[in-house]
Amino acid sequence: MRAIILLPFLFICSSLFAQTTISGRVAEKSGEPLLGVNVYIKGTYDGATTDINGNFSFTTYEEDSLILVASFIGFHEINLPLSKDNEPLLIRMREKVSELNAVVITAGAFHASEEGKREVLKPLDIVTTAGATADVPGALNTLPGTQTVGETGRLFVRGGDGRETKTFIDGMLVHNEYSPSAPNTPGRSRFSPFMFKGMSFSTGGYSAEYGQALSSALILQSKDLAENDRTDISLMSVGADVSTTQATENSSFAGKVQYTNLTPYFKLVDQNLKWDKAPEEYNSNLAYRVKTSETGMLKFYSNASRSDMELYESDIANPELELPVKVQNDYAHFNVSYRELLGENWGLKTGASFTKSDDFAALDTESRDQNLTGFHGKVVADYQYSDRLGILGGVELIRRNVDQILSDESGSFEQDFNEQLGASFLEAEWFASSSLGFKAGLRAENNSLTSKNTLTPRLSAAYKTGDKSQVSLAYGQFYQAPQTQIILSQPSASSEKATHFIANYQWLSEGQSFRVEAYDKRYDNLTRYSQVFDPSTYAFDGYGYARGLDLFWRDTKTFKNTDYWVSYSYLDTERAFKDFPGSFTPTFASTHNFSVVVKKFIDEIKSQVGLTYAFASERTYHDPNTDRFLSGRTPAYHDLSFNISYLYSNQVIVHAMVNNVLGINNIYGYEFADTADTNGVYAGRAITPAARRFIFLGVFITLSKNKGINQLPNL
């Protein structure tokens, strides 16, 4: 009987002996306690949740091979084998880094993407900005860091000239990316903004993957598969075009032909230039996309055009003497790219581009016939080691063959060069936490003409100062071959160098964004000469600097159906290059640039209207009638532009645009005669636009089974 009574007591004691208390504290790597962490024994229901101090405590009857799990959203899960000493535990959890919460390195770059949630710009902004005439550089010139140089139409970035910005499509370099133009009149980008889904416009400190650009890299990402069959017809005051798109489940084809002729327009709008043959261009584009696998995509794109124009240019010293000018260009560009994911962690990108451009320009009895053949091939692999560390590396080959014939009454002179540039690059991006990230890269290049090797570092870092704000820093060295004419005269000409230092602050909220960026850029090895065609006068010891401050504010939230942004740039720059007798502010640089862009959709009249105001302070010019070099100053630049798109029906849009509505006679600079008159005076004249205003009218028609699509996003 006594044994029966003792059995329950012994059972209870045995159970109490097997019961184990597990306790401890959970914290971040920094030591900050974590509230709400789920801590439990793997494979059981035994566990607890941490309190405000990160503490937890629970009991378990389990004994053998215990694994303690700590799980918390946003952090890596911990699996910890338990020992038998029952000591309180200290568990440190490492934060996960995801695209949604990670800091983004933004120093020196503006990004635009159809998918991005953090982007300051969208691709649609490029084509709806008044005054941009649906031209990518035209729209980017409303961003801080750019200077208005109206006589070229190119991108001049932070004290650099137009050739210091290079364009890449799907990672591949584009040679001769601008269409030809008459002297002192702006050219346009050859590539329509409608073909791109994303853009990165770097005003400095760009990735080690890209090179041969002293100031800026414009990186464009073409669209993937089209979703709908459609035909678009555009009837414009400057010409017409027809495009068609055919889409299947795994592929799509698009083709476009365009004809531009400014003769009818010039008859309606008076021009300051005397045209014998107004600019005329034939252009065709083809694009093919095919999905090669669930993660693979092959893209092909081609652009071919022929353009020519003829006009008369008055002699500066004798305005009654009119000299004939002729400009012709035949252009072809082909681009193929392929991307694929190789397993969970590896990615591959490869591509090639080919460019053929034949330029002919003549002034009176002098002419230049220049032919360029360019090739770019690249292979890039990236490896995502973890959510914190990614590595990218690759190799590329850039070939450029140029031949030129210079002719005048005395005969002709031939020049040519064959340049081959091989490069390799390696870049790593590491996140110490979701608030702190670093990127470091190296780029090595070898130029066949100079037989020189260069190794350039690229460094950047970013730190989140809050949920909506962050600061970034960037540093980099960049090399670029001199201008083409210098290499033609002396193929062994040394590459020019720029060193960038950038500090950035950005605040980004839903519908609003603000950024401020300070920079310092140093130039070395710039080309100097007294005569551009005489290599005996060349020296490669030029230098310079550019420093300044950029501000940007954008708001789509405050006013209903209204989007606006404000940009301001301050620039202080000098350089000793070309035929400068010392260090001076170049003629293309202006100290202050300011712009305001406003867009509003008015439901009542089914229209989108846009307004852009641009201001640029005075620019320097050299007057040979004075003893001081580059002492002249132009008037400030002002431009108020307007556009409107009216939705006549779901698939018919009427678009109108007027640049320089106020008709201000902007002066870009002055040019002077080569020799003085009998009184010792050099005659001069102002460089002004070909017309006070540019007016555009167009009707855009879309034919598709999907009645909800039209060309409004393209306007």
Give the topology.
Elements: H1 2-18, E1 20-28, E2 38-41, E3 47-49, E4 55-60, E5 67-71, E6 78-81, E7 89-93, E8 109-113, H2 123-128, H3 136-140, E9 146-147, E10 156-157, E11 165-169, E12 172-173, E13 196-202, E14 216-222, E15 230-236, E16 239-247, E17 251-261, H4 263-268, E18 274-291, E19 297-314, E20 322-342, E21 346-363, E22 366-384, E23 389-408, E24 411-433, E25 436-447, E26 452-464, E27 469-480, H5 484-489, E28 496-509, E29 512-528, E30 539-555, E31 562-576, E32 592-602, E33 607-616, E34 620-621, E35 632-633, E36 637-649, E37 652-659, E38 669-672, E39 684-687, E40 694-703
Parallel strand pairs: 1-7, 11-14
Antiparallel strand pairs: 1-4, 2-3, 2-5, 5-6, 8-13, 9-10, 11-12, 13-14, 15-16, 15-40, 16-17, 17-18, 18-19, 19-20, 20-21, 21-22, 22-23, 23-24, 24-25, 25-26, 26-27, 27-28, 28-29, 29-30, 30-31, 31-32, 32-33, 33-36, 34-35, 36-37, 37-40, 38-39
Largest β-sheet summary: 22 strands, antiparallel, barrel
Computed Rg: 31 Å
**Contiguous runs where pLDDT drops below 50 for at least 5 residues:** 1-17, 114-119
CATH class of the largest domain: Mainly Beta
Helical stretch count?
A: 5
Number of domains: 2
Number of strands: 40
Give the distance, in angstroms, between the N- and C-terminal Cα atoms: 99 Å
How much helical structure, as a percent, in the residues? Answer: under 10%
| Mean pLDDT metric | 89
Task: Name the overall outline.
Answer: globular
Describe the structure.
The model is unreliable at 1-17 and 114-119 (pLDDT under 50). With 715 residues, the chain is mainly β. It folds into two domains: 14-93, Sandwich (Immunoglobulin-like), CATH 2.60.40.1120; 109-714, Maltoporin, Chain A (Beta Barrel), CATH 2.40.170.20. It has a 22-stranded antiparallel barrel. The chain has a five-stranded mixed beta sheet with strand order 8-13-14-11-12, with no helix packed on it. The protein has a four-stranded antiparallel beta sheet with strand order 3-2-5-6, with no helix packed on it. The chain has five helices and 40 strands. The longest helix has 17 residues, at 2-18.
